[in-house]
Design goal:
12 helices; 732 residues; binds calcium ion; TIM Barrel; alpha+beta; 8-stranded parallel β-barrel
């Protein structure tokens, strides 16, 4: 959906010159009625959600308020950058009673209609009469007056699909449908004679509360919508009451609520409009959202007329007053049931590179607008951290530290573009915490539209008490740029990450505190810490570069491992390099964090042999922000790399479903490697870990001259991007 914003209030005078020019870019499709539903030309259902402003002739009448020009209010209510997503503007007009239609049109109608059109909105021209209607001289507004107004206005918008006619706001008496029908049908007929296509909104007696009568005795003319107005004085917002008022009627005839609203503050409400968000607004919204064929416009985007969204100084009112609630409602449903359907509301791109297998941080959802990359219930980031979107993000001390998605509410969802997905069977872990016993909590995980499963977050007792919810042995098809989607039901839980671990992957966790270790140049002590794995940490009181702690792992056979370190990052921690048998592996990594958080990081890929294996963590330096060089280790996790690989990898994908082939084994002169991408790097180390050979892969089959290798076991490694394939062979 393209959207053009203009500095409109600054160029209001220009509109006088271009009143009949419609911005083609902002032209909306024609709407029509099909059954009880508004639809676009393609048959998509359309729900018109927006606001009313006050009639422009009244905009400067408040003596206790800070008045604003009409054009500024109109610019504001459609401006997403100011948090407002009104898709239809209701423009009341009262001057018609005292001015001729031409003057009213030129001064109080068309400039604002054109402004709304330029803002890509539909706009309802509302002849804002609140009056008895005249029946045979009974008093009230003469039929001829209403007819004359529309005889002037309707043909001027007959070719403008954005414009909708609300032909008599609130007729009061006589409270009789037949007499009202006799009064208003000729008006409709006269409009249809000159404007056959625009939607016509029709009120009813008793301030537009008699839609039920239209069910059995409808008006004619085509593309008619029956208007209902409701405020808290009409009773509780129960389904039973709302069904009786207008909901039952709306099941068969099109009904639009062009006015409703409430405020609790007595300065901003009265006997009709007094109500609360919790007591009236929330159940009312729940009902309306469940009846999306009912379009609506909130009353009123103003600081003066009651019940207003803003206080007299243009502060948006919140809590039990309606302003903030209405803003969030319009925000959340901004793209729901709009012309053109779901397409065309924006692009979606990755925020971070994600892979399966891998751990995907919940907070690293894609870049894109509401309903493109995510769906959030309210405007803004309630946690006010990490990213400037409307998704609500907080910080955590859980595994990985960093951030989490919080403030989850029923119906929200998040999407993640996964760069590469390796085919295979996976165990899926979803890291969640909740201090709420809110019923109906669950998370549905989908990949490219395929449901992988649903999990139910528990009440873990605290927002930082975490659990891992499991979906086990899930078969996943491989591919690239697949979209992972997390759908939230119930809400009231935090999400830290979702992790995909290949089934059969073997990992062993060694607590730092129970592993044989020694340190040089620094003491190491066990520190009890409830949040740590196994209840303890090892604190290495390092004070400079070269200090280290070394762990000893007894091992049988030869195997390649991905080595993860679990540690407590903090403000006094140094940077670290991993060594094995005197050689450095992996990259220097930083244990510093301005606050204390628990992390788990992949630090190296190491091959273990038979015997006591020693892995050393050595201080490499410190972050300029860090106050020291210390290490606070929790555990070391060794993941059998071959088991990760066997569950599927891009290297395997590159060779179809067959493994990379290495042959012959044993080898004497030449070792051949097949099924490896030709930009992969191949290295061969001997059984003590020393590098003996290295070369690039070539084409579909790489030949490696192994004549100069000493007899004995060797390890071949293929590295392609982030992936490592290892293979053991014997040189004879
Ligand atoms: Ca939000
Ligand atoms: Ca949220
Ligand atoms: Ca996270
Ligand atoms: Ca531990």
């Amino acid at each position: 959906m393209t959207r053009r914003l203009y500095p409109l209030y600054a160029c209001l005078f220009a509109f006088a010159l271009i009143v009949s020019v419609v911005n083609a870019q902002a032209q909306k499709p024609w709407l029509h009625i099909d059954g009880n539903q508004i639809k676009d030309p393609a048959g998509n259902p359309v729900t018109l959600r927006g606001v009313s402003v006050l009639p422009s002739e009244h905009h400067n009448e408040c003596t206790t308020c800070n008045n604003k020009p009409m054009s500024e209010m109109i610019a504001w209510q459609a401006d997403g950058s100011r948090g407002w997503y009104s898709r239809v503007l209701r423009l009341p007009v009262t001057t018609a009673k005292v001015k001729d239609p031409a003057t009213s049109f030129a001064t109080h109608i068309d400039p604002y209609v054109q402004q709304a059109i330029s803002l890509n909105q539909y706009v309802i021209v509302d002849l804002h009469l609140v009056s008895n209607y005249d029946v045979n001289g009974s008093g009230g507004v003469k039929q001829q007056f209403v007819m004359d107004f529309w005889k002037y206005v309707a043909p001027r918008y007959a070719n403008t699909p954005n414009v909708i006619f609300e032909i008599f706001n609130e007729p009061v008496n006589p409270d009789n449908w037949t007499s009202w029908k006799n009064y208003i049908q000729p008006v409709i007929d006269s409009i249809r004679a000159v404007a056959p296509n625009n939607l016509i909104l029709v009120g009813s007696p008793q301030w537009s509360t008699r839609v039920n009568s239209a069910v059995t005795n409808p008006l004619t003319g085509g593309n008619l919508v029956y208007v209902y107005h409701i405020y808290p004085n009409q009773g509780a917002a129960t389904a039973a009451n709302l069904n009786t008022k207008f909901g039952n009627a709306a099941n068969t005839i099109p009904v639009m609520l062009t006015e409703f609203g409430w405020n609790q503050d007595p300065n901003y409400s009265d006997g009709v409009t007094f109500g609360t968000t919790g007591g009236w607004g929330t159940p009312f919204r729940n009902y309306i959202d469940a009846h999306p064929w009912i379009s609506w416009q909130g009353w009123i985007f103003d600081n003066f007329w009651k019940p207003q969204f803003f206080d007299w100084n243009w502060n948006l009112m919140s809590g039990e007053n309606q302003g903030r609630f209405m803003q969030n409602w319009l925000f959340e449903l901004q793209n729901h049931n709009q012309p053109g359907g779901a397409g065309g509301i924006g692009t979606q791109t990755p925020y971070a590179t994600h892979t399966i297998p891998g751990r995907i941080q919940a907070e690293d959802f894609d870049i894109g607008a509401q309903d493109v990359a995510y769906h959030d219930s309210d405007l803004g980031n309630n946690g006010n951290s990490y990213r400037s979107t409307d998704v609500d993000l907080g910080t955590t001390t859980d595994i990985g530290g960093g951030h989490v998605v919080g403030y989850t509410i029923n119906g929200e969802w998040l999407e993640y573009t996964i760069d590469s997905v390796a085919a295979g069977n996976y165990n899926i872990g979803i890291r969640s915490a909740s201090a709420s016993s809110n019923a109906g909590k669950n998370i549905t995980v989908k990949l490219d539209g395929v449901t992988l499963g649903t999990v139910t977050p528990n009440n873990t007792g605290a927002w930082e008490t975490w659990e891992t919810l499991a979906l086990n042995n899930i078969s996943i098809a491989g591919g690239s740029n697949k979209v992972l989607r997390l759908e939230i039901a119930g809400g009231s839980f935090n999400l830290n990450y979702i992790e995909f671990t290949p089934v059969g992957q073997v990992s062993t966790r060694y607590e730092a505190e129970t592993t044989s270790r020694w340190s040089s140049g620094a003491s190491n002590t066990v520190v009890a810490q409830a949040q740590a794995s196994g209840g303890n940490l090892v604190r290495v009181s390092a004070d400079g570069v070269g200090d280290f702690v070394e762990y000893t792992y007894p091992h049988t056979g030869m195997k390649n491992y991905d080595v993860y370190l679990g540690f407590r990052a903090g403000p006094d921690q140094g940077t670290c390099q991993v060594y094995k048998d005197g050689a450095a592996y992996g990259s220097v990594f930083d244990l510093y964090s301005p606050t204390t958080v628990y992390k788990e990081v992949l630090v190296a890929n190491l091959t273990f042999y038979t015997g006591q294996q020693k892995v050393r963590f050595t201080v490499a330096g410190k972050n300029t922000s860090s106050t020291g060089y210390q290490f606070t280790h929790d555990y070391v996790k060794l993941v059998d790399h071959a088991t990760t690989l066997n569950a599927g990898s891009a290297l395997r994908q590159g060779a179809g479903q067959s493994l990379i082939q290495v042959f012959p084994n044993p080898a004497t002169t030449v070792l051949k490697v097949k099924g490896v991408p030709d930009d992969a790097a191949i290295t061969i180390r001997d059984a003590t870990g020393n590098l003996r050979l290295s070369q690039q892969a070539e084409g579909s089959e790489t030949s490696i001259d192994v004549q100069r290798l000493r007899p004995g076991l060797h390890i071949l490694r293929v590295v392609h991007g982030d992936e490592v394939f290892t293979y053991t062979f014997l040189k004879e």
